[in-house]
Amino acid sequence: MGDIVRVVDKEKVDSMDKFIDLVEGKKGKKVVLEIERVRGEEKVNKKFTLYSRENPPQGEGPLGVTISSTEIYYPFIVVRPFVGIYYGFKEAVFWGKMVIDGFIKIFRELFGGHVPQDLSGPVGIFAITSQVSKIGILALINFIGILSVNLAILNVLPFPALDGGRLLFIGLESIFGRKILPKVESAIHTVGMVILLMLLLAITARDIQRLVVAGSIARFIESVLK
């Protein structure tokens, strides 16, 4: 664990797909891996000659190892807060784009007359959170961060009852130079809140139904993420 594959048979590896392609092309033959092994602050480069199985068991690759594209990085303690801010902002931007793309997909499906399948409410969030918490505290913190980005973007949507709806009214007032009647704005926000609550109840009911049908949280999560 923690070994980083740098070279496969004298070819530099810069992605997980390239690693898989190189190993797959060596089935039934020997393959030389050059890895970087990190132990604390020490880095050691090593070479291993392995046999790439031609017919590996189901669910296993030719080498029988588990690989990940995530690299563990340990910066100096002094710069860790700044590195954390940089990567935290980078992750927030990445997940922000993912969330926006998800909302666009949902609206397309709704306007196309289809019920979004990859939509989940409080029950689904609770199920996924409980599963993520079993992995560890860091995974849980990361997942909470993703939820925060999701809720932040949802909250600024120009829909009544959300902060984005209020910003929309402020924008309209500045454009037309007139203040919207408080009673009218209050009524629109009330209607928006009722719609949101009804949508929330519908999603929760579907989540409970899927959880009962799945029979377990793990299977339920699989159905949510499909």
* Proportion in β-strands: 5-15%
Q: pLDDT under 50 segments (min length 5)?
A: none
Radius of gyration: 25 Å
Structural class: alpha+beta
Instruction: Give the averaged pLDDT, no decimals.
Output: 83
Largest sheet: 4 strands, antiparallel
Total helices: the number is: 7
Key attributes of the depicted protein:
four-stranded antiparallel beta sheet; 226 residues; alpha+beta; 7 helices; 2 domains; 57% helix; Pdz3 Domain; 4 strands
Q: How does this model look, in words?
A:
This protein is an alpha+beta fold and 226 residues long. The chain folds into 2 domains: 4-74, Pdz3 Domain, CATH 2.30.42; 78-225, no CATH class. The chain is 57% helix and 12% strand. It is built from 7 helices and 4 strands. It has helices spanning 16-24, 80-111, 122-133, 137-155, 163-176, 182-214, 217-225; strands at residues 4-8, 11-12, 30-39, 42-51. A 4-stranded antiparallel β-sheet has the order 2-1-3-4, covered by helices on one side. A hairpin with a 2-residue loop joins strand 1 (4-8) and strand 2. Helix 3 crosses helix 7 (217-225) and helix 6 (182-214) packs across helix 7 (217-225). The longest helix has 33 residues, at 182-214.
